Please model this.
Amino acid sequence: MGGIASFLSGCTTSLVQAQLSSNPQLHSPNCEYHTESASVGIYHFRFSEANKKDLVKVYGHKVHKLVAEPLKKMIRAARSQGIDLKIASAFRSINHQEGIIKRKKEDGTSLKQIYFFSAPSGFSEHHTGLAIDFYPVNSKFEYSATYRWLTQNADKYGFVQTFTESNANKTGVSVESWHWKYIGHPQARELLMNMGCYT
Ligand SMILES: [Zn+2]
Model:
């Protein structure tokens, strides 16, 4: 076992598997991954950038219009229960992501370190405008009441965590308790067509 073939054969499971089997067109046939990060054992999959006209602002952050209402509802519900759910980052353009990676390379950060924490440009769920990082973006989030609330409630609003422990084991990407994406609408799942490779 091992290698990319066995990795890809196990790359669509659970909820997403169920969605994909009824909507095979949602799944990119070969989970197109970024080759430079794969060369250091880390798998990031391609996502398209949202059209500018589909982006709207929620609490000052650009998101895809499909996620705006459910996101606002979820934040309001959390706050009504004393949970201060705050957006740290949402839509990021391919250009912006390219700048992040470029700066890290110029700083002499190793490829393994770079791609453990960051997606290559063109390979981030944030390009779709459907992925949200909640505040604070660090390992303490996992132990917060906010994270506990999300694990118990986010699915009611159509959100799932991407970089879970099991996902991290498969892809080599860092666990990210703060990174959630909206899959509560068929069109959102279509825009996140490569999510099946992650979860
Ligand atoms: Zn994120």
Q: What stands out?
A: The pocket of zinc ion is lined by residues 126, 131, 133, 179 (CB under 6 Å).
